[in-house]
Amino acid sequence: MDIRLTPYEARVIGCLIEKQRTTPEHYPLSLNALTNACNQKSSRDPVLELDEATVQDTIDSLSKKHYVMEKSGFGSRVTKYQHRFSNSEFSPLKFSEQELAIVCVLLLRGPQTPGELRTHTERMCKFQDIHEVESTLDQLSQRDDGPFVTKLPREPGKREIRFAHLFGGEIAMQDAAAPARSESDRPGTDPERMERLEQMVSQLHDEVTNLKARLDRISPDQDPGDMP
User: Fold this and answer.
1) Annotation: CATH topology of 7-177
2) Which of 45, 58, 172, 190 could make a disulfide contact with 168, Cβ separation 3.0–4.6 Å?
3) Domain boundaries, the chain
């Protein structure tokens, strides 16, 4: 099944699935509620700052693809939205409870290890152990109408393999093909920052040396507070 979502579309679909599963009493979502869900500081990677106009444009795009529809209650003045991305009468895409939870977390959080997926899907489903997570990932990667997830190359120094969703097409695969970063590319170790730190250390060393020299010149009877 050829499904291609932009990063913003993936965020909107992921939020709608998440809220449907975790807070059904507040689902479907208004534009304001959906925008807040997209911009959550927790359970999101990357953290976004979308305005309502951008979210509305994304909803309109998803509506044209038949992945989102309006669903407002009788007499409601606020337009609300629900997904029909999967597991609905409008979609041929069907997932088990565990498959849907994994897909949702990958849409919202990006690549995850099986251990992370087990933890982050707790509000939507239950896995008996890590092997059940791995089995579900295998199913998602081997389905006849898929694949829907892929295994990423092992990161240097990491023991666990990460998995990513494939609904972004090339966007998801860029992460899989990205070369390992060198030490100079990693956050906190860029050359300019190291140079600044070295200058600070050198300055502190000079100040300590000067202070020791002044202390050595003080006579035994002289009060350090009287130093010139």
Assistant:
1) Arc Repressor Mutant, subunit A (1.10.10)
2) 172
3) 7-177, 185-226
